[in-house]
Amino acid sequence: AAYIDPGGLVAGAVIPLAVLFGTILAPFVTVPLVTGVAAAAYAYCGVRRWTFLFAVPAYLATLPLLLYGLTRREFVWSGRRYRWTGVYDVTVLDHDAD
Questions:
Q1: Considering the domain boundaries, does residue 12 fall inside one?
Q2: Which domain holds residue 19?
Q3: Which of 12, 28, 30, 79 has its CB 3.0 to 4.6 Å from that of 22, i.e. a possible disulfide?
Q4: pTM (predicted TM-score)
Q5: pLDDT the model gives residue 3
Q6: 80 pairs with which residues across the strands?
Q7: Of residues 52 and 84, which shows the higher confidence score?
C-alpha cells in the first residue's frame, strides 16, 4: 500500500490513541475535556445538537474502523462494488444499467 499517506495515517491515529490512553489513565480529566472540546466545536459551528456527548465513544471507535478500512481493498457503495487501487484510483467492478 505505497499510496497511503503516512502523515495522514499517523494524524488519524494519534488523537484517538491519546483519547484511549487518557480514558484509561485519567478518565475524570479526559472525558470532560474531550466532551467539552466537542461541545465548543459544535457551538462555534452553530450546531445545536446533543450528539457532542458521543465524542469519546466516537474517538474510541475510530482506531478499529481505521484499521478495518486499511485492510479492505473492495467496498460496496449504493449497490455498486468498487476496488480501491490508489489514492485517486477507484475502479467500478460491476454496475447495472438503469
A1: yes
A2: 6-72
A3: 30
A4: 0.70
A5: 58
A6: 77
A7: 52
